Amino acid sequence: MKKIKDSPVWAGKGMALILVLLLYFPAFGQENLPSIRATSKNVLIKDGYVWRSGIWSLSPETKPDIYHPLQPLVSKTISFYTDIDSITFRAEPGNTYGFNIILNSKDTCITQIVMDNRLVEAGYDKLKMISPELLAMDFLVFRNYMEKEHAGLYRYRSKKEIKKLFDDGLLSIDEQMSQLEFGKKIMYLISKVQDGHTGTNLSSKILKAYGNDTPIFPLSLYFTNENTVVRYSKFSELPIGTEILAINGIPMKEIKKTLFDYLPADGQIQTKKQQILNNGAFAFLYRLVYGNSNSFMVDRKGLKGRVTVKINAVLAKDLDDNISNTKSNAKDLQFSHLPSGIVLLTIKTFDQGRLKQAKLNVEAFLEKSFQQMDKDKTDKLIIDLRGNAGGLDIYGPLLFSYLSHKPFRYFKSIYKANNAEAISDNPLVELQQPQRKSFEGKIMFLIDGLTFSSAADFCAMAKSNGIGSFVGEETGGAYYGNTSGQTIKIELPNSKIQIVIPRFAYFNEVKKVRYKDRGTLPDYPIAQKLEDIIKAIDKPMQKAIELLSN
After folding, report:
1. CATH architecture for segment(s) 327-549
2. Residuewise pLDDT in 10s, the chain (550 residues)
3. Which residue intervals of the chain bear CATH 3.90.226.10?
4. CA-CA distance, 240 to 534, in Å (whole number)?
5. CATH number for the 210-325 domain, one of 3.50.50.60, 2.30.42.10, 3.30.1390.20, 3.40.1490.10?
6. Using DSSP, how many helices (H) and how many strands (E) does the chain show?
7. What is the dihedral of CA 86, 90, 91, 93, to 10 degrees?
8. Concatenated DSSP letters of 139-192
9. Where in the chain is the domain with CATH 2.30.42.10?
10. CA triple 519-522-526, angle to 5 deg
11. 64 prior amide bond cis, ω within 30
């Protein structure tokens, strides 16, 4: 940490914050506070209507130990229950309530319940409450646009199911809420619509609202289908690779399932949601869904069973997830030679804006690459589409034209929102022609949960036509097509939440498969383990090379 004399601006801000805190935390005489007794460190808290189990452990050394309630701008009753005693406060916004918990008749745990609205006024938590009438108006605007403009609203859910989803959402708005609390409802509903292209600006609003000085979960976690491990940590008790079993008494499988309910994806695809959590979203989404806390009780897997560790939150500005250290340095479009005469085409995006900024051209790249492979008589090819979130529709058919040996149809049909007639003037629904010289050798495709949109459409076409084999994870985009194309962006008038709604539904010209609501499934399922990522070992790539070499 820099010395204060090296940071005069920081010192000024720090002094202002100290003055705020002096106003915010009134001095309590320990002897004048009400007291309750305890013989166990575990305390149960009832916050309004919410029972919070496993989040509070007595710490006599922390003076005071501060509890920040859920929704601090709402009047409520808050109770603390020890194993032998209890205390209840009628908590009002702007007030601080102090009391002592006497542990084992000797240790005094000075405890405070802090209702945060003074820090709200000081700019600490920039949330404001919105009346239920105004939120209901926003919800009706949201519902109206979704029903009129969303081309795939009933793609995975029936009209009856979607109607009930909206009806229940409207009925749940029965009290004033902050922008983010209302945003949670919108995020949940969008997730249940099961369309990965429907989006909001809530992620940026979450980061802005939390600001630099918001307490947040301090560990970077890595989720797999089987377990959850520490990806990065500054706690010696929880080193990298430690398996985490629960947070605040809630099993990690339950936490993951709950957070998945707030993330969008096509159909029943889970890989995209897991990738989002693994790429830095966990701590912020966890705080939004489970509320704030200054400390966490973390259960980890030990050599002799479960071990519980109490860790303190860190400020959002100090959260270091170390994810940037594990990113690939490959360009968005890259031609590479691998051992055994294998050529690797890395195609990270079909997004024209991103490619233009990097001064890259898909048409020129593909033409040059396949000409070079024809000249070298290359007969083994890996196409890496991991992380390719899609882009222009034309790039999928273009890539496919270099692999197909006969004319093909790419899209079976395209529909615009609320139009029963399929679009007939889009050239991509017409018969497509292969390149004069298509690739003749063996092909392996690398895919993951971030292979999405037009990149996922391409994978579905290749899989359906028996072109190559797939290694990695299920694609993040659906096998039968997506809802995207032209989008509209609306802003809800009172909460100022923006919604992105896709207006065109694309249906791929593919053979029927077992699942109607899944992505392209790999022939060789391989999910990267944390130890492989840390050591920069690319297991899917290794598998593809092995298969082609043999």
Report:
1. Alpha-Beta Complex (3.90)
2. 333 333 323 333 333 333 333 333 344 444 588 999 999 999 999 888 677 777 788 988 888 888 878 767 778 899 999 999 999 999 988 889 999 999 999 999 999 998 865 444 333 344 578 999 999 999 999 999 999 999 999 999 999 999 999 999 999 999 999 999 999 999 999 999 999 999 998 887 777 777 677 888 999 999 999 999 999 888 999 999 999 999 999 999 999 999 999 999 999 999 999 999 999 899 999 999 998 888 999 999 988 889 999 999 988 777 776 665 555 667 899 999 999 999 999 999 999 999 999 999 999 999 999 999 999 999 999 999 999 999 999 999 999 999 999 999 999 999 999 888 999 889 999 999 999 999 999 999 999 999 999 999 999 999 999 999 999 999 999 999 999 988 999 999 999 999 999 999 999 999 999 999 999 999 999 988 899 988 889 999 999 999 999 8
3. 327-549
4. 10
5. 2.30.42.10
6. 15, 30
7. 180
8. HHHHHHHHHHH-TTTTSSS-HHHHHHHHHHHHHT--S-EEHHHHHHHHHHHHHH
9. 210-325
10. 120
11. yes
Tokens of 168: 């229940």
Cβ neighbours of residue 354 closer than 8 Å, sequence gap 6 or more: 332, 391
Cα–Cα distance between 411 and 464 in angstroms, integer? 13
Strands 35-38, 96-103: pairing is: parallel
Whole-angstrom CA distances from 382 to 83, 268, 379, 510 are 61, 28, 10, 22
Contacts of 342 (CB under 8 A, 6+ apart): 380, 381, 382, 545, 548, 549
Enumerate the β-bridge partners of residue 335.
Answer: 345
For residue 527, give both structure tokens: 């999910």
What's the DSSP call for residue 256? Answer: H
User: Residue 545 — left, alpha, or beta (φ > 0 → left; ψ -120 to 50 → alpha)?
Assistant: alpha
Q: Are 381 and 343 in contact (CB under 8 A)?
A: yes
